[in-house]
Structures are given as C-alpha cells and as structure tokens.
Design brief:
The complex is a heterodimer.
Chain A: H1 2-7, H2 12-45, H3 67-73, H4 78-113, H5 120-132, H6 135-145, H7 151-158, H8 173-180, H9 191-195, H10 203-206, H11 212-239, H12 242-250, H13 255-283, H14 287-292, H15 304-314, H16 318-342
Helix pairs in contact in A: 3-16, 4-5, 4-11, 4-13, 5-11, 6-11, 11-13, 12-13, 13-16, 15-16
Chain B: H1 2-25, E1 48-53, H2 58-75, E2 78-83, H3 87-96, E3 103-107, H4 108-116, H5 135-140, E4 142-143, E5 146-147, E6 150-162, H6 163-168, H7 180-192, E7 198-199, H8 204-213, H9 231-245, E8 249-250, H10 260-265, E9 271-275, H11 278-285, E10 291-294, E11 305-314, H12 321-331, H13 334-344, E12 347-348, H14 354-360, H15 365-369, E13 374-375, H16 384-395, H17 402-418
Parallel strand pairs in B: 1-2, 1-3, 7-8, 7-9, 11-13
Antiparallel strand pairs in B: 3-11, 4-5, 6-9, 6-10, 6-11, 6-12
Helix pairs in contact in B: 2-13, 8-9, 16-17
The chains are: A mainly alpha, B alpha/beta.
Pfam family, one (chain B): SBP_bac_1
Signal peptide (chain B): 1-23
Keywords (chain B): Signal, Transport
C-alpha cells in the first residue's frame, strides 16, 4: 500500500488532507477576507492615532504603540473614567442578566416539557416569540411601556405606588437598597468610600449597582433572550431518556431528587452552552443601549460596546475606540476560559 | 462524546461571535460610505455635486431640493441632495472611506472636529461679502485663525413667557425680567401662586446661556485654553443651582416632558429658555397657548445667549470645489435665505437679511437680536466627551457643588485641548 502510494509521488493521507483543504477553502477564504483581515486591520488602527481621514495604512498615520490601551487603564482622565464606568455598568448587567435568563429559560423549558401541560405548542410559541422579534422593535415598545406615564407606572399607581421616571433615573439600585436599609445616605455618601477606589472611580461609584434606567434594559433582555435559551434546554430535556427518570423514581428518588441527580447533570453541556452564549451576548450589549438610552442618564447605561462606537464614530478617536473593543474581546475570552475551567468534568 | 462536541461548539461560537463584533467595530475604513460621491475625473464639463444634509423634516428637504435644482438649471451642473439619517455617522464613514460628499451640513458643535483633521475646505472668504455674516457665527466657524465655511442659518435662545400663566401670577408686561435679579423676583411671585416659574433644559445648551451672561465660557475665545473654572462660570452655575434648589426652575424631566418646550406648551411652567424652533412646536402641538418672546435677562456682564448653527461644509477632497463654492454662494444669498426662512422657519445668517426677516416675522426680533451677544458652541476638537460629561454634571446640579463640577470640566477640557 505504502509502496503503491509513494510510487504515485503522494501518500493517500496527504491526498486526503489536500481534498479536505479544498473542501473548506471557500469558508477559509471568506473567513479570512471578512473576519481575520478586518480584525488585523482593526488591531493596527488600535495602535495608531488615526483620525478617520482616508486610509489608516498610510505612512502619515501616527503610530502610538500601546498608548490607546494604557490610557484606558493607567492615565487619570476622562477616557479611563468613561471606560471604567462602562465596565462597571456592564459587570452589574452581566451579573444580573446571565443567571436570570438561564434560570428563566430552564424554568420555561421545564414547564413546556411537562407531559401534563395542555396547549404545549401555544406556550412554546408564546415564550419563544420575543426572541424572534427585532431587538430594535422590542426596545421601542419598552420605551413606551416604561414611559413616565406609560403602562408600568399606570399599573403601579393602581397599587398606590409612585413609579420612578424609569429612563431618566440615574440612581444606583444598590445605593437605593443600602439607603433603604439605613446603612448609607445617598446624598452624603460615606467619605471613606468616596475618597479612593481603583482605576479612578471611587468605591462608592463601583458599588452603585445598576441604575434604575439600566434595570429596564435588564428586564427587556432577560425577557427577550430566555425564549431562545428555553429552546436549547427543551431540546436537551427531550433528549434525556425517560427510562433514566423512571429508573431513578423506582429507586426511590422524589421529583426533586430526579431533577437534582438526573436531569441537571444531563443538562450540563447545554447549561454550559447557554451560560457561554449568555455571557458573550451580555458583554456585547449594544442595540438596546443605542435605541433606548445612548448611555444616558448620567452614563449609567454606558457599556464598552457602545462606548467603543461612540468614541470611534462620534469623537473620531478610532484608535481609542478599537482599543476598547479589543479589551472587551479579551475580557470575554478570559471569562469564557474561566467558566470552562469551573464547569470542567471533575474526575472523582 | 456529545458533551465535548457541544463544548467545542460553544467555545467556537464564543470565539466567532466576539471576532465578529470586533470586526464590526473596526468597520468603516474600507467601506464606500453611506453617501458615495461620484468619482468622475476632475475634468472639464458639468460637475456632479453630492450634497448631504441633516434635514429637520420634509419642508427643509423640499426647500433645499428646489434651491439645488434651480442652481443646477442655471449653471448646467448636476446637484443631488440626500437627506442623512444620521449625519455625523454618515460623514464619519464617508471621510474614512475617502469618498465624502462635496457639500454637506456641518453642525457648529462638531465643526472643530472636522476642521482639525483637515476634512473641510477653508473657502469662507470666497463667498461674496463675507463680513455680512454675523460676527459670532463667523467666529464659530473659525478654526486656527481660518474662517472655513459659510453659516447656513442660525437660532438663538430667548426667554419665552406663557401669557395666561403670567397674568395668573399677577404679573404684567412691565414685570418681564431683564436682569437675573428680576428673574428671581418674578419666579418668587409665580411660586407663591403655585406656578412653576421656569422650565429649563438641564444641558450646557441652555445653562450655557447663563454662563455667557455672567461673562464666562468653557474655553477661551481662541479655543486653545480651558476657562471652565473661572469665577464667572461659578457665578452662573451657582445662580442656576439656586433657581433649581428653590424650585423656581425645573427640568423637563421633573415636569414629565421630553423637552422644555413641551413642558411649557403643556402649561407646566410660566417661562422657558428655548430657541426659535419652539415656534413650530407651539403652532403644531399647542396652537391655543398664547406666549410672548423676550430677550434673555442680563447677567452681571450683560445679556448672554447661545447660538446654534450649521454651515455649508465643502469637502477638502471634493473634485468640484469651484462649483461647490458657487453652489454655497447661491444658497446663502439674501433672497435664498429668506426663502428658507419662509419654508422652515430658520433665521438668515446674513445681517443684510435682518430687516427683511424682522419685517416678515416681527415676533422673532428677540431671537434675531440675540445674534449680537450670542456665543457659539465650543469650537475645539475632541471636546465631545468632555461636554457630554459636563451635561452629566449639570443633570446632578441640584445636589453637587458647582465648584467641584467646574473643576472636573476644567481638568477634562485641559486634557482634551492638550492633545
């Protein structure tokens, strides 16, 4: 065999390889032209002071090295302050949205998967509906729903609650919570927290929690994304053999036991997928911010993705803008790796 | 087996999704741009001008279209007018893609950004009788000592008073405030009658008028040094803060309105500080509300207001600069400016059109008179984020120390101008 192959000058393995590459060539070409190349170009822009005039690859474009990056972290100024504010906002956003949407999606999937439920397809469609609607359209609807005299505040006033001015309320919910508990005074925050803090933002600012305006966007996103993830959970749930559950029940496991020791472990790969996708999409939140708040009020809905757009296309600081997007990229990769490590299969 | 496939899929999709975003963020340099200019060689023959406008509505688009085709017929050139969805972004992309439109609106607040990167052709003095344009507008479009582009039209802020609420507060025409002290005094009287005195937008574009009245501004006249923490600015902000703390002045949000004009139209405040665009809003949305317009009350250093304006920018890369200048010339004649004024209610930027304008719109005299003491927007590059941060501070003015706020603006402005 080997002799025959070498006589033809090329081994069968190499031929297989060649054929393989030929088959994937279109994708490789498309990916490199439309993804890899633009990314490398953006990487170059992030190391220049390009002002958006003409090509960024001319000799006249000043090269500044890592300055755009260091300005985000080490230089005391507006750039760092805005970037850190956007990171803070997004961290709170991720911390709330990812668990909420995952739990909601899992809950919905369990309900729809229930064998006793009637009108299953209706509920499945109803829960999935927000996910297939354009995010811009839904955002606009939420603008109306949460307007000062909108549906939500009308509903609240039925119960005698004076609803907040959702989209113009920049107060942090954690601040409100702490002052509600009588721990701090929002108008006169503790000096110890105000005085210092990492990266030019005081501890008091870091600990603000999502602003009231941000919570509306959080609600919107949890609601719209849980449908997609419900579908993933549903597929995984229907993949679990009924015999496994029955066997567990025969062995004396209750409903809770079956869920904890049979269903959940079987769902682990899907859970990982949902958490990863959730983590990525929440770090990249843009459409909702662009349509609903543009970073206002008082920068409390500013996110790195929106800040990157704003810096590049509104202030013409393309270098700084692309640097922000690369830092965001790094954050997402690192967090995904950490998550992968946490959820790895442990050998008992 | 299945587990690891899924995991791989997850990681792969993670990677590709992020890469996509990064690529999206970096887009805009190889794109032809939203308004591709004609790439005809700069040879003889008729020009094909691409004109990108940030239109306020159909009335404006129609009027500019009509004027453009009249010019085209007269000169034998071609002119294509495109109303932009998002002028700033479309221009940014077009510049980056090396294919900007020949003529386009340039907002005064963004002018310095464009001028500083060399995107604009400094043709200002080629327009006939250039000193006829109001000096404050010429200053607005001057960068580094060069007068770049001809102001299209302008608006100023003035004090607008609701006649019915004014009477209800027991006030007469003689009580119309001409100084800050009088403004406080009438506010007190209105407050006593349970009427909110003033609806004031909480941005630099309204509060800034008080800074001008106090003799201050964010940057020096040449736009090279930061002057935000001057005592004049402190006087202005402290005065506005006082109005807010005493509940004399309320922000549109506090009055449950989108902007001060809406709050004013709904009768939620007796006065407001707005520009001449409020006329259109009142006619369309609140036709029954009677109101009068007066010049801004004078501060310690005299009257002060802000002007808002656009200029006819010509791209430095245009292949038809001569024709473009001729086009702008046609757009800025007194007759044409009056035609625009009739069509969509803007004020002519030429002083020689002032009489014709005040004759046609006598109620607008306070707005036009404002041109004499108006200050244009900050015309220094890279100030966008600094000013946005200043706005954030003004939104919290009721609860923060004006001195701290001005110090913050000073620090940021110094950093931005130092670049």
């Amino acid at each position: 065999m080997a002799v025959a192959a070498s006589r033809r000058g090329i081994s069968s393995r190499a031929r297989e390889n060649l054929a393989g590459w030929l088959f994937v060539a279109p994708v490789v070409v498309i990916l490199s032209v439309f993804m890899l190349l633009p990314i490398l170009m953006a990487l170059w822009v992030s190391m220049t002071d390009w002002n958006g005039q003409g090509s960024p690859f001319k000799a006249s474009v000043p090269f500044v090295g890592a300055e755009n990056y260091t300005r985000l972290f080490t230089e005391d100024g507006l750039t760092r302050q805005d970037f850190m504010t956007s990171l803070r906002n997004n961290v709170y956003y991720v911390i709330i949205v990812v668990p909420c949407q995952t739990l909601l999606a899992l809950g919905l999937a369990m309900i729809v998967n229930n064998r006793l439920l009637r009108g299953k397809s209706f509920f499945r469609a109803a829960f999935f509906f927000p996910s297939v609607t354009s995010s811009v359209a839904i955002s606009v609807v939420f603008l109306f729903v949460f307007a000062n005299s909108g549906a939500v505040n009308s509903l609240l006033s039925v119960f005698g609650i004076d609803g907040p001015q959702w989209f113009s309320d920049s107060r942090g919910t954690l601040h409100l919570l702490l002052s509600g508990l009588g721990l701090v005074d929002v108008d006169a925050p503790p000096a110890a927290l105000l005085a210092t803090g990492p990266f030019g933002l005081s501890w008091w600012d870091w600990l603000s929690g999502p602003s009231v305006a941000m919570t509306t966007i959080i609600m919107l996103v949890v609601w719209t994304t849980s449908g997609t993830f419900m579908l993933m959970f549903l597929a995984a749930l229907q993949d679990i053999p009924v015999t496994l559950e029955e066997a567990a029940k025969l062995d004396g496991a209750g409903n809770r036991g079956v869920f904890r020791y049979v269903t959940l472990p079987m769902l682990k790969p899907t859970l990982f997928l949902v958490l990863t996708l959730g983590l990525i999409s929440t770090w990249q939140v843009f459409d909702q911010i662009y349509v609903m708040s543009q970073g206002n009020p008082a920068k409390t809905t500013l996110t790195p993705a929106f800040l990157s757009y704003q810096t590049a296309f509104r202030s013409f600081e393309y270098g700084s803008g692309t640097a922000i997007s690369f830092v965001l990229f790094a954050i997402i990769v690192v967090l995904t790796l950490i998550q992968r490590w946490v959820m790895r299969d442990r050998k008992v | 087996m299945k587990r690891s496939t899924l995991r791989n899929a997850a990681v792969l999709s993670a990677a590709s999704a992020t890469l996509l975003t990064a690529a999206a963020c970096g887009s805009g340099f190889e794109e032809p741009g939203a308004a591709p200019a004609s790439q005809a060689p700069a040879s003889a023959g008729p020009a094909d001008l691409q004109i990108l406008i940030g239109s306020s509505g159909e009335a404006e688009t129609g009027a500019v279209n009509a004027a453009a085709s009249a010019w085209a017929t007269k000169t034998g050139d071609k002119a294509t007018v495109t109303p932009a969805q998002d002028l700033g972004q479309q221009l940014g992309q077009a510049f980056a893609g090396d294919s900007p439109p020949d003529v386009f609106y340039v907002d005064a607040s963004r002018f310095a950004d464009y001028a500083s990167v060399g995107a604009l052709e400094p043709y200002g003095d080629k327009i006939s009788n250039p000193t006829d344009f109001y000096q404050s507008l010429r200053d607005t479009f001057t960068y580094d000592g060069k007068y770049y582009c001809a102001p299209k039209d302008f608006s100023t802020l003035a004090l607008v008073i609701n006649s019915d609420l004014w009477a209800k507060g027991g006030l007469t025409d003689a009580d119309v405030p001409t100084t800050w002290e009088q403004l406080t005094a009438v506010s007190e009287k209105l407050k006593a009658k349970d009427i909110t005195a003033l609806a004031l937008g909480d941005t630099r574009d309204r509060v800034g008028a008080f800074m001008v009245g106090a003799g201050g501004w964010i940057v020096s006249a040449d736009g090279k040094t930061a002057t935000a923490d001057s005592p004049e600015n402190l006087t202005a902000l402290s005065y506005v803060q006082g109005l807010m703390k005493d509940k004399y002045a309320q922000t549109p949000k506090q009055l449950d309105a989108g902007w001060a004009g809406e709050a004013f139209g709904k009768g939620k405040a007796a006065m407001t500080v707005e520009g001449n665009w409020i006329k259109g809003a009142m006619t369309n949305d609140f036709p029954d509300v009677k109101y009068t317009v007066h010049e801004m009350p004078a501060g310690p250093k005299g009257k002060g207001t802000l002007s808002f304006t656009n200029c006819w920018g010509i791209s430095a890369k245009s292949k038809f600069k001569e024709q473009a200048v001729s086009f702008v010339e046609a757009m800025t004649t007194v007759e044409q400016q009056m035609a625009f004024a009739q069509a969509f209610g803007v004020m002519p930027s030429r002083q020689s059109a002032k009489d014709a304008y005040t004759a046609a719109f006598p109620d607008d005299a306070p707005f036009v008179n404002g041109a004499d003491y108006a200050h244009g927007p900050v015309n220094a590059p890279k100030m966008d984020s600094v000013l946005a941060d200043f706005d954030t501070g003004i939104q919290q003015l009721a609860s923060i120390d004006p001195k701290t706020l001005l110090a913050r603006v000073q620090k940021n402005t110094t950093a931005a101008l130092g670049n």
